[in-house]
Amino acid sequence: MISFDSHLHTRFSSDSEADPRAYIKLAKEKGMKGICFTDHNDYDFPLEDGKVVFDLDFKAYLDYMLKLKEEFRGSFDIRVGVEQGLMKSVASRVDSYDPENKLDFIIGSSHLVEGEDPYYPSYWEGRAVKDTIIKYYESIMENIKTCHNFDIYGHLDYIIRYAPEKDINYNWKDYYDYFYEILKSLIYQGKGIEVNTAGLKYGLKNPNPDINIVKLYKELGGEIITVGSDSHSVDYLGYEFDRVYNMLKELGFKYYSVFKDRKAEFYEI
């Protein structure tokens, strides 16, 4: 089984009210080996109802999580990470994040396209879907060339969750050249990718990214794969991990990764 969930959000993220202790309790009941908290930090995210969002109080977060980690040392494995929003315009702040190296793990993700959030249906109004998706993948290429302080790239085809018809008429091969360049760049930089099961929660046929993109990553020489539920509530801890286990095994992966002190550890599949 995949026994470590490496992507979890708690009340320290603007879009979650989950209690970290509730995750720990359930993970232990499920027989998991450990979990990694990865609350959101997105610089310059658009205001929501006039309020600043996804501006992680890093000191408060770190103080709380490190105490929790110490409390459960020896009885349950807790890692502390961040999901960092990547954009060229904030690259210097991204690359100077956590200067004292307190974190175990940083997920690099793209949530915005030119400062706008494709989560909202209004974002897609008056836009051609394919062109909009291409612009998102172009932004990823720019983000990973300018932002370097992250370990794996999160939910690579995230935008498909929010496209008007999701993946009904989506074919990953239409964007092959973008995926090829993105994956080659990540591999060259020694970075991995995430298999994020929230895509399945959102009704997609695949996790994020499409399993064929994970296959391409392997064919290009990629070896670092983390698995995360991207859960914002305790109910989705370890969501569909059995399905991902089978997918990775069928693709020929021998290991999945968990990060500690910003270095990949390899767990047998």
Task: Explain what you see.
This protein has 269 residues and is α/β, with parallel strands linked by helices. The protein has one domain: TIM Barrel (Alpha-Beta Barrel). The chain contains 8 helices and 9 strands. The chain has helices spanning 20-29, 58-71, 91-95, 129-146, 176-188, 198-201, 211-219, 241-251; strands at residues 4-8, 34-41, 77-85, 105-109, 152-153, 192-196, 225-228, 255-260, 263-268. The mean pLDDT is 97.
Short description:
By secondary structure, the chain is of the alpha/beta class. The protein contains eight helices and nine strands. Pfam families: PHP.
Show the helix and strand layout.
Layout: E1 4-8, H1 20-29, E2 34-41, H2 58-71, E3 77-85, H3 91-95, E4 105-109, H4 129-146, E5 152-153, H5 176-188, E6 192-196, H6 198-201, H7 211-219, E7 225-228, H8 241-251, E8 255-260, E9 263-268
Parallel strand pairs: 1-2, 2-3, 3-4, 4-5, 5-6, 6-7
Antiparallel strand pairs: 8-9
Helix pairs in contact: 4-5
